[in-house]
Design goal:
Chain lengths: 294, 333, 239
């Protein structure tokens, strides 16, 4: 029984960070209806950014979180203005392949600059690496990462529900023309959504690097994880993504315990199953069904 | 498919002759080893891209998981040969059968999905097959990388001459393009075009969407699988990371898009441009650091898809259509 | 020819079509009218098999038609057009009609010849090679009708086929519809253009908020107080 509890806790902690990464994706996909296959690469950028921040200034990712977030938002803003803006009115195929191309560029750029070495940031000394929690031991980094992710998500949710811009983002995600008709500056909203979405993703990467290794292709696994979390929670439903991420973290941890070699396949299988049988996700808010089915 | 039901048009015969000249003639015309290797790759990928194009261009379903079928083909023929002595010619058929079975299995859930989600689902399928193979490999104690002994023999699909391989690839290309041609000029071709343009309206005129998407999918999967076998027999070594590789999935899609999606010549043209380009980039930038050539490659993908989404053939068709329209304007009024 | 019994459709809490029954005799032209949101297009979609029913039956030429999707309905002999033309964007005018004709099993050559014939009947002769997306709205509507005709239906469902057309275009289309009926075609059409309805319909059925509220000869139905009330509100319903 203890093991199950351990696994659950581990899973939730992992899921929290997944949720943060997926939140960014949901913001972008849900709002701008833009497919971003390069999503994982922004997570990777976050990891490298955190690593180099630590290397150059000694600031660990947790202390440097605000810096990483702002950095991420800036990148998101640039990304939107230089590329995405032009793909919005093009066909889906164009968006898919354009962001796919970007993903290849970013992955290999990282490879060129940083080589294929696996990097991580050691935040806590050996004594503090794991701490007692609810009867078992948990990795400190995972716990702290989770806490950061949780705070970031709560703040984002508050932003979405309580501020004008946040609600404008929700409006645009539900009906772009209607939003325009009520006077919302759609272009500005999209830019903010992007900056925020990418910012959160980069932050997620930064917060992940103490627990996970950074390497150029690390993004590939995360992009699918994020998509699954988003579909699980329901497209456009930002709060649902949180649940989706947590569930995903738990499932992955459980499978990883039972059959480690198949752990990676969990996400893929789950995605196929979800898209095929539960496209609205678990919370049935016009998810893939409205957008994705015929 | 009844050959009488193919809607032959003027100019088709000429195109066929040209294609045969390329696929069969060039392998004999080229002598240099390096160029024969390049020719093999162009012809093989031309066929692979054409197979993808049947599903992606004609039926409008963009798969990014075709490497699954490629890998299945490569592993099926190789395992059957190295473990049971079965000739790769037969092994290829085995691979095709398995690939078609997989395609059939996933068709029900994935065809309900629109564009992006379909792409994601196919990526997921591609990766799942790879992971399942890795897992199975450990259980069945199959080595990570499998080599095929170099023992030339037609029955073993191993050739001493690179020319023979190029010729085999050429015949593969002819086969795939031939089938694509037959499909596009038949009722299925019209149906695929209709369902690509507007699924609801297509259904309203009696088109069974699932059936025709499935036909395109099965043919596409089968030929991709065959291509995998051919590649395995050429390189004589396979491992999961080389035959179950997302890059393959992206490449066949990219070539079709670059050359002209939904056209007969597009995929081959795309392969003819992309393969030498990849070689060139590797040569030029290989020294600049690992991955430099891929940065350029990725950037090219972005540029092509943003500026020339209909590909080379598509753009050429557009221009000649415009010229025709302007010329005929007086006649129409 | 076509009989609809207590057809219903619900979308969550909204009952879009509420136990609607109607019948159309062979070679009859019946118009379905009603204010926006009455459920007319939904009813069409139900009959055409484009969406599953929540209740009721569709009987076509004496045979019960279970819900099997719009492709099966088309093959059974019921063709429909769309309110907003749903064209095959990459096809020429000829190919659009050709592909519809293929469902009857003809070879492509034969389907092509038949398509040219159909195009002539709707007045699009000479435009065969034109890209369908470049047609005017009148042309697109005619193309929709041609495409539906190519499937050799016995019943034609026309959804607001007059919308967006000017007077002469409307008259032209009415003429075509009359010719179709003369050839034995049964037609059920949704229309907002009351003049056109009075001009051509043998019978008029009125829907409001998912229910059928009137069914009879055009002039009689249009003077019924409930019908007037449904369009203009209580203030105008003078008996």
């Amino acid at each position: 029984m203890e093991t199950v509890l351990q696994l659950l806790i581990s899973g939730v902690l992992l899921g929290g960070v997944y949720a943060l990464g997926a939140m960014g994706l949901n913001l972008i996909f849900g709002v701008a209806k833009v497919v971003n296959f390069a999503h994982g690469e922004f997570l990777m950028i976050g990891m490298y950014a955190a690593y180099w921040l630590w290397k150059l200034t000694g600031l660990n990712p947790y202390a440097g979180a605000p810096v990483i977030l702002v950095f991420g938002a800036a990148i998101g803003w640039i990304f939107y203005r230089c590329l995405i803006r032009y793909t919005i009115y093009k066909t889906e195929m164009t968006q898919v392949f354009a962001t796919l191309g970007l993903s290849i560029v970013l992955q290999n750029f990282a490879l060129m600059l940083f080589s294929a070495d696996f990097l991580t940031v050691k935040v806590f000394t050996a004594d503090w690496e794991s701490i007692p929690f609810l009867g078992g031991y948990v990795s400190t980094t995972r716990l702290v990462s989770f806490l950061f992710a949780a705070v970031a998500m709560v703040l984002t949710l508050l932003f979405m529900k309580r501020t004008y811009t946040g609600r404008a983002i929700e409006a645009v995600s539900q009906d772009l023309s209607a939003a325009r008709l009520v006077g919302i500056d759609v272009n500005k909203v999209l830019t903010v959504a992007f900056a925020l979405g990418i910012g959160l993703t980069v932050l997620a990467g930064g917060v992940l690097v103490p627990s996970f290794y950074a390497f150029p292709t690390v993004g590939s696994s995360f992009v699918l994880i994020s998509f699954v979390a988003v579909v699980l929670g329901g497209l456009g439903n930002v709060a649902g993504t949180v649940a989706g991420g947590l569930i995903l973290g738990v499932i992955e941890t459980l499978v990883g315990y039972l059959e480690p070699d198949l752990k990676e396949a969990t996400h893929f299988v789950l995605l196929i199953v979800l898209l095929a049988f539960l496209p609205n996700g678990l919370f049935g808010v016009g998810g893939a069904e409205k957008e994705g089915l015929k | 498919m009844n050959l009488h039901r193919i809607d032959y048009r003027d100019g088709d015969a000429l195109g066929a002759v040209l294609l045969v000249a390329i696929a069969i003639g060039l392998p004999f015309a080229v002598a240099d080893r390096f160029y024969l290797n390049l020719l093999f790759l162009i012809l093989l990928y031309g066929g692979l891209a054409s197979a993808w194009n049947l599903l992606g261009g004609y039926a409008g379903q963009f798969s990014l998981g075709h490497t699954a079928f490629f890998g299945i083909g490569a592993y099926s023929s190789t395992l059957l040969y190295t473990m049971a002595g079965v000739s790769p010619w037969l092994g290829a058929l085995g691979g095709m059968a398995i690939s078609m079975a997989l395609a059939f299995l996933i068709s029900y859930p994935v065809f309900r999905l629109r564009g992006v989600f379909f792409a994601m689902a196919t990526i997921a399928v591609g990766e799942t097959v790879r992971i399942v193979l890795l897992w199975y490999r450990r259980i069945a104690d199959i080595p990570y990388g499998i080599s095929i002994d170099y023992k030339p023999g037609f029955g073993r699909m191993i050739f001493a001459e690179p020319r023979s391989y190029a010729l085999m690839a050429g015949i593969f290309l002819l086969l795939v393009v031939g089938v694509c041609y037959a499909v596009s000029r038949s009722r299925a071709g019209y149906y695929l075009q209709a369902l690509r343009d507007n699924e609801d309206a297509a259904q309203a005129v009696g088109i069974d969407l699932r059936r025709y998407k499935l036909i395109a999918f099965l043919i596409s999967a089968a030929f991709t699988s065959l291509g995998g076998t051919l590649m395995a027999q050429y390189v004589l070594y396979i491992e999961p990371s080389t035959v179950f590789n997302t890059t393959i999935s992206i490449d066949v899609a990219l070539m079709s898009i670059l050359g002209g999606i939904g056209t007969l010549w597009g995929p081959l043209l795309g392969a003819a441009v992309t393969m030498p380009l990849q070689e060139f980039l590797r040569d030029w930038l290989g020294s600049a650091g690992a991955g430099a050539h891929l940065v350029v490659y990725g950037a090219l993908l972005v540029v092509i898809v943003m500026l020339l989404p209909q590909g080379i053939v598509g753009a050429w068709k557009d221009r000649s259509a415009k010229r025709r329209r302007h010329g005929g304007q007086h006649a129409r009024g | 020819m076509l009989e609809v019994k207590k057809l219903s459709k619900r979308f969550g809490g909204l009952t879009a079509v509420n136990e609607v029954s109607l019948s159309v005799a062979k070679a009859e032209i019946v118009a379905l009218i009603g204010p926006n949101g009455a459920g007319k297009t939904t009813l069409f979609n139900l009959i055409a098999g484009a969406m599953p029913r929540d209740g009721g039956e569709v009987v076509f030429d004496g045979r019960n038609l279970p819900h099997q999707g719009s492709a099966a309905t088309c093959l059974a002999g019921l063709a429909r057009t769309y309110q907003i033309p749903q064209l095959f964007t990459s096809m020429t005018v000829l190919d659009t009609v050709l592909v519809a004709g293929l469902c009857r099993g003809s070879s492509i050559r034969l389907a092509r010849i038949e398509a040219m014939d159909v195009l002539a009947r709707v007045g699009l002769a000479g435009r065969e090679d034109q890209a369908s997306s470049t047609l005017t709205i009148s042309g697109k509507k005619r193309l929709e009708v041609a495409r539906a005709l190519a499937t050799q239906p016995r019943v034609l469902l026309l959804d607001e086929v007059m919308a967006g057309l000017n007077l002469s275009e409307v008259n032209g289309l009415l003429e075509t519809i009359r010719e179709l009926r003369a050839g034995g075609m049964t037609i059920l059409l949704v229309e907002h253009n009351i003049d056109a309805v009075l001009n051509i319909a043998d019978r008029v059925i009125v829907m409001d908020q998912g229910r059928k509220i009137a069914d009879g000869l055009p002039r009689e139905v249009l003077s019924q107080p409930e019908v007037i009330r449904s369009y203009l509100g209580d203030g105008y319903a003078v008996a």
